[in-house]
Amino acid sequence: MTGLFLPMKRLFLCLAVALLASLSVSAQEYLTFKSEAVFRRAVNAGDKDRDGQLTREEAAAIEALDLSATRSDLITVATYEDLRYMPNLRRLWTGTTRVDRIDLSANPNLEWIYIESPSIKTLILARSCMPEIVMKQEWMGEALPEPEIIYLSRPVQDNRLDPDPARNLSGGQPVSFQAPEGYVMVYVPAGSLPEGSVLQPEASAQYGSQKSRPAKKPKTPKMQKPVDPRPALVGVSTNLLLDGITALNLGVEVPLGHHWDARADIYFPWWKNNTKSFCFQVLHVDAGARYYFEGWKNRDAGIFRGWFASAHLGGGYYDIAPWDDGYQGWEIEAGIGGGYSFALGDWWRLDASLAVGPFYTDYITYEDTGNRSTLIQTGADHRFRFLPTEARISLTYIIHAR
User: Fold this and answer.
1) Is 36 helix (H, G, I), strand (E, B) or coil?
2) Neighbours of 61 (CB within 10 A)
3) Which whole number is the average pLDDT over 76-103?
4) From CA 22, how far away is CA 282, in angstroms rounded?
5) pLDDT band at residue 143 using 50, 70 and 90 as cut-offs
6) d(Cα 83, Cα 65) in Å, to the nearest integer?
């Protein structure tokens, strides 16, 4: 009996371990999505354990959700109700949809919304939410209308609204709607916000019976023209300061990731006038990188904008003789600095920058006896200094895909 008891004991132990494992797996609650399109994109953005499902914790950690259709994934969003699972969402691309009203009252941290579909007429936002709203430039050759905005005094539980307010969207003045107890909805006409403290419930028949301290006038949501979405390839630039002294130069700038670029510049003035003993010949190469603080999400016309920090290393050969006496030698330099890049439309940039660092040169001095046919060395020296190694006012054109 003892020999039979031991195998049975081991069998029951294994079954118990398997049962506990299954209970732990089932205890991990997976969310159920109503929209297949939202589910797929949310899994791509927040599925940390790569199991093809989303838990409530994984969904709550999502800060950016792109619902835009791509060539390989032509999605259409049927409902946005699943966004209630993402209370920390900050950036949203609404994508293609036939929905006319999007309830985002459960997403109070939204900072940026990109509206792509002309069917979207109304946005419902939490009272504390003042996102930047960007409209797609055009749809079928026509500009998209700005949406109407409804603010809630606080997010509605479970992101559910009474359907009646849709019948009251008229007039253009703040309107009180029927809403769950303790909530007040305020209508805001497209492109404007009401005066005063209408975004909080007040002790009046129009805005409910709750009392609150006066609120400051909110800022109007910022509308801006979206950038050209075509992929950026490389920026080609020239330093206008050097062009002004006939020092020909050319630079290239390649975006890396969402904040960095790698760049290289070559300076190649090669002028000489034998009759006047004049020489201006330089061959200098620089390589460096920049970090753009604003950054970019996609590699499109939004790259290379705003403040940046930079570093570079370079060196080369020079032969400079403004008169009969000249200098000939080689140099090496490095520098760190920063600047600002102004966007001139989608694909042009004008940036100003300055860098300082160490500079070393080894050279000879010479005298031209006439027509640069005979050069007589008059000395030799080397110098090391810490000084400005780069000053730029550059014009850049970004080459992009067609």
Assistant:
1) helix
2) 14
3) 90
4) 74
5) low
6) 9
The amino acid present at 176, given as its one-letter code, is: S
Cα separation of 245 and 256, whole Å? 32
Look over the chain and give the mean of its residue pLDDT values, rounded to a whole number.
77
Greatest Cα-to-Cα distance within the chain, rounded to the nearest angstrom: 119
Contact in structure between 368 and 321 (CB atoms under 8 Å)? yes
CA distance 331 to 362: 6
CA distance 64 to 346: 24
Backbone dihedral angles phi then psi of residue 80, each to the nearest 5 degrees: -110, 15
Domains assigned to the chain: 30-224 (no CATH), 232-400 (2.40.160)
Structure tokens at 214: 């006066």
What is the value of pTM for the model shown? 0.49
Residue 312: left (phi > 0), alpha (psi -120 to 50), or beta?
beta
Q: How far apart are CA 381 and CA 364, in angstroms?
A: 6
The three-class DSSP label of residue 337 is strand
* Beta strands 64-66 and 91-93, pairing class: parallel
For residue 262, the number of C-alpha atoms closer than 13 Å in the C-beta half-sphere is 3
Closest CA to 133 of 226, 221, 227, 225: 221
Reduce the DSSP state of residue 92 to 3 states and report it: strand
User: In this predicted structure, what is the pLDDT of residue 259?
Assistant: 93
